[in-house]
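Appendix B.2, paired examples.
Example (i):
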Amino acid sequence: MPLILNVPYKEKDTAKTIGAKWNPELKKWIAPHKDSYPDFHEWILKKEWFDYIICDVFYIIEGHRQCFKCGENTKVIGFGIENYYWLDFDEDEDNEEECAIYHYYTGEINVASYIDPLPEKVLKYIQSKYNYKMRYSKTIKNSYLANCCDHCDALQGDYFLFNEMDSPFCITDKETAEKLALYRIKLSYDLPVRAQHSWGSGDPLIKEYGSVKELDFNL
């Protein structure tokens, strides 16, 4: 999928020389091939800061866990990213500015605790199906979109949900992978986002044994 760029008019010739294409429907410049995304970094970054580019598809991943407060079984979600760039920011010693090193990953589904911003259609869908909303965390002293218990509404904090060994998203074998329901969302344009993800040795099992269904959002 192509990537929408934010090219000022006075810079259009430079972007075109590098390979940007004009999309008359969007009235925007696009980078047509993911291999060239690093070349267009300055025009991706003009919109707002990001550290991932999600390519082609991403997933809503549904699991279940026991609420720490009421003890009931509750649905929880994370996100799956399969083809993506992760940007490693480093300081350029020559000009004392941050430079980004692009690392591309593909082949397995990795779990992300959040994606920001989520496409509006996707967020509305999630909030119609799950108890997922802005909540204040006393632990981190900040508000964020979070899973909450279906029964007692207690915040299911991201750290415990995504980093503990008994997390539904910590895949250790076929059985834990089979408990996940994955909802695959195709992208019309790749997404530059902020995110937090992890790699696990059991991640290849997610695609192999998780239940995958298609969602059509026409994004």
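Example (ii):
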Amino acid sequence: MPLRAGRKPAARRRPEAEGEAGRSRRGPRWPAALMVAVLTLAVFWPVIDNQFVNWDDDQNFLQNPNFRGLGAANLRWMFTTFHLGHYQPLTWITLGFDYVIWGLNPKGYHLTNLLLHAVNAAVFYFVALRLLGGKVWAASGAALFFALHPLRVESVAWASERRDVLAGLFYLLSALAYLRAHQEGPRRRWLAVSVTAFGAALLSKVITVSLPVVFLALDFYPLRRLRGGWREWLTTEARRVWAEKLPYAALAAAAAWAAFALQKAGVSGFAEHVAARPGLRAGLSLYGVAVYLWKTIVPYPLYQQYVMTAGLSPWDKRILLGAAVAVAITALAVAWRRRFPAAVTVWACYAVSLLPVLSIARVDPQQYVADHHTYLATLGLALLAGAGVGALPARLAGGLGVAVLLALSALTRQQIEVWRDPVSLWTRTLAGSPDSVVAHNNLGEALADQGRYAEAVPHFLRAIQIKPNHAHAHYNLGLAALREGKLAEAAGRFEQAVRVEPAFAAAHNDLANTYAALGRLEAALEHYRTALRLQPGFAEAHYNLGNLLYRQRQFAQAISHYRQALLLNPSHAEAHNNWGVALDALGRAAEAVEHYRQALALDPGNADAHNNLGVDLEAAGKIDEALAHYQEALRLNPSHGDARANLARARSKR
């Protein structure tokens, strides 16, 4: 975006009229785009070896059977769900496609994110080419500054942020079509492409809602379709520009309304405290504008969480400083709007793109800035960097550009390593935000998943020390107590978790498990039903309720819940085994045999299923086959008393 002085627009030739001389002067276009994509792939390539992290990835993928595939039921869910507060059907479709190819192997999900990011870098190169006067090196510099910046790592390395890179693709395609409509034509056709791409962007992530305002900024400069003072923006010619935005505005309004409704439904606790203080929210918003700018210029250190304390005041020196910087830059941009119109456009695009994720528009009880929020917002800043490259002498521009890109690439590689797995992510986060409740709780979960319970418990306790009513920390302490057989302590922790967060389905399920182990069957039944009311697709709760109903000799009802568990999670081997046990209790041994076989097909190491299958085979007179299953059960579990007794009895029948 060239920083030219003067009020009168320079004459602009249409690209098709430039001829061979113009093209050669500006350099080849497609090879540069390919170079941008290849360098992006090279720098980010280690990301494909990263794991899922316990920050949405677990709930989106590991605990969510609904996205697994592209069948009619999966697609219906994708287009109707607001899972974790997001409406993103196109994002879910790409994730379902990943599952079809890769299963739950994180490598495939990270590879798709990376490929999308590389394509985005190439598309942005073509956008920059149109905005920077066709200068290939300037456009390449802008695209690489955007693509290789360490702030991009969170969007690429975090599998759940597929929505960032996918929405970014449609956002950039919409912008490219919009520019082509007004620089080359045919206008209507390319505007239709732009509106369609914008709709796809909104169906990928609602953060793209600000794009119509970005287009207005481009209409001001460099397209110069909105000229002069504010009054001239209401002329007949200008009204056509405004009318052109109506399809975009209609789509944006619908998406914004849905996003606001979802956030309002999710506001609680400290979030309510912040929502009631508009001065603080405004201050935090200005602080965010300044912080994102600073992190773009100096991208170190970067963390997953940037946490401020609950006792925050609008007069906090950090907020005041950030607000002063944001207001000062805005004032300068407005004052210099005629002399440096590009600066106005860049700053307007930056601020408007951030608006949906600033505290004034959303409420997040954990943090006020996040790296992935910069994915689209800093495109204008990247254009400014590219313009700087284009304005410098060739030798200086080349040396400085290479040095900057090498530094960014090194920091990006370092940040990719931070996102390697949950332990590395939350350990790094605590280095920057030692009082982050989320980081302590999630690091504890990650350590517990590795069997490092002694290291995990102090993090859960620290989370509760910082925030006594942190439901998930209480829940995780309950799980730790349950592993040690401390049923009463576990029940107390789970009770506290559901008291603080009544809609916590997993806590209701584990509280019910604990009550069942303590013999409090009616209380357990109530909490299983509560868990399923809160989360009807909770396969494990259906399975556990089936086990409880079996204990109460309600075999037919138990079977209905085992069936539901398997509909939700077809790989649940224990549900097949216990379904078989319930069928045996009803005298339906032939059907039970099939379920035991299915259990073993899913889990050949299930000693109980081998033993149970052996019992039915023995009863059917298939002694040799029964013996084989008893022996396998004992091989898998030498202390399996039932299998040992059954083996002795079956041998006596030979």
